[in-house]
Amino acid sequence: MITEMLKLFSPYIQLNCLFLFLLNSISGQINYFNGLELIADNTFTHGFNVYPACNKPDASIHHGALDPNCTKIYSLKNPFSCDQNQTAIWMIAQWGSHSSLPQDAINYTEDLNTKGVQWITADKSVVLFQDSRIRLEANAYHEYGGIYRDPNSPWAHLLIQQDIGISRGSLPLSQVNELYWSLNIRLDYMDQHIQPGYNINYYAAVFPLYLMIQNLNTSHPEYGKFVWLGITLYDDRAYNMWDYINGDSASQSLIYCPSFTNFASASVQDGEWVYVSGDMMPFVNLALQTAVNRSFFKSDDLSNFYVANMNMGWEMFGLNNGAIEVAQLSLKQYTPQNPKSFEFNKDTDTEGWTRKWDLGQKTNGPLNGIWVLLPIGDDPQLLSPILNLDASVVKQVVVRALNSPGNDDQMQLFWSSTSDDNSFSEEASCWIQVPSDGVWGQYILDPSNNTLWKNTIRRLRLDPVRAGNGSIWELDYIRFAA
For a surface tag, which of 143, 189, 403, 481 has the fewest beta carbons within 10 Å of its beta carbon? Predict the structure, then answer.
C-alpha cells in the first residue's frame, strides 16, 4: 500500500528534490555570521524515531519511561524526503497514551497550501506537510473515554523532541550572547468538551516548548542537574499564559516559564498564525538563580550549563480535542565570534537599534522587512543595542541600503569598547560612499584596518549620511562578516 502511494506522489517528490539541488547549486555569496542553529533537521526531512505509547505511572515528558516496553523505538519515514536513509534526529513521545502511532498505515492528505502525510489513531495524529509544517493533534476525549482522569494519574502527551548537547555544538552558556527562539504557530481548532466535574486547576490542554538547561561538566559534583526553561505557547485557560515557576515531581527539577507576552504580540487562541521569537538568555540566568534559591542545586555557574535537549507538544490534562501547526522552528546560539545579524523582518521591531539624532522614520519602525528612515539634519545617527563582538574574528559590517537624491552620499560607522552611547570618536570610525541615486546596494564597511578595532566591541553607531534633507534612506539589513 505504501509503495503504491509513493508512486502516486513521486512526481511531487522528484520536483522537490530537483528544486533543492538547483537552489543549493546557485546559492553562496558572502558568508555572514549569523549564529549556530541548534535545532537539527528543522524541516523534518529525516522523519522520526518514535517511543511507543505508554500509560505507566512512571512515564514522563521529561525522562521517558522506566518500563522497557515503553522504550522499544520504531521509525516513521518522511516519504517526501530526497534521502530515506538518513538516521532520524527527531523523536516522538506518546507518554500516558493508550495507542501508538502506526508505523505502516499512513495516509496522504492535503490542505490549501500543500500535500502532507498523516499517521493517525483514534487518540492522536501527526501530519507532516511537504512545505515542512508539522501538525500535532490530540483527542483526549477519546483517550480518557469521556471521563475526567484522576488528577494524580498519568496524562497523555504527544511531543516532538531532540537531544542537542555538546556533540551538536551547544556551548557553555557563559560564552553565549543570545539563545534565540523563533517559530510560527497556529491553533487549528480546540474543543474543550467541558463535562460535570470540570476543575480549571486540573483539566486543560497545554502546548509548551521546553529547553533542558543542564550541567554537562562531568567533573562537577552536580553534573546532570538541570532546569526546564519553557514557553507556554498555548493553554486553553489563558489568552496569554503568565509566568509559571514550579517544581516538577517527575524529574525533581525546576520548571521556569516566563510570560508568553515576552515572545509574541498576539495570542495563539485567536486561531491565526503567530510569530513567536525572543532571547532566552535573560531567563536562563533567572531560572538557574531560582533553582539555587529553591535548593534544587547549589551552583548556577553558567560555565557548567549547556542546552541539552528540547521538546514541544501537547500535554492533555482534560477532555480536550485540539490541533496545532508549527512551522519554521529555529533556535540560534549567538556568540562574540558568531554574532546575530539584524534583519528587521518583524514589523515595528527595530531589534534594539534606536534613532539617536536628526533621524526620522516614515512608519513606526520596520515594515515588510524594510526600515524607511528620514535623515533630517547635519548629524543623523542610528545607535545599536549593546553588543558583544570579538573584533579579532568579526572584521566587516555589511549594510544593504537605498539612498535617495537630496541626501549626502557618505555613510559612516563608529564603534566603541564601552556600552556608553556617547563614547564615539572620529578616530574609531570608517566611512563608505553610498550614492544618492535611489538604487539598492550592498555596502561593506571594513573597520578592521583601523588599529582601534580590537578586543570586544560593545556599541556601534551608524550615520546613514553626513547630512540629509528629509529624503528617504531605506535599510534592509545590517550583518557581520569575516
Answer: 189
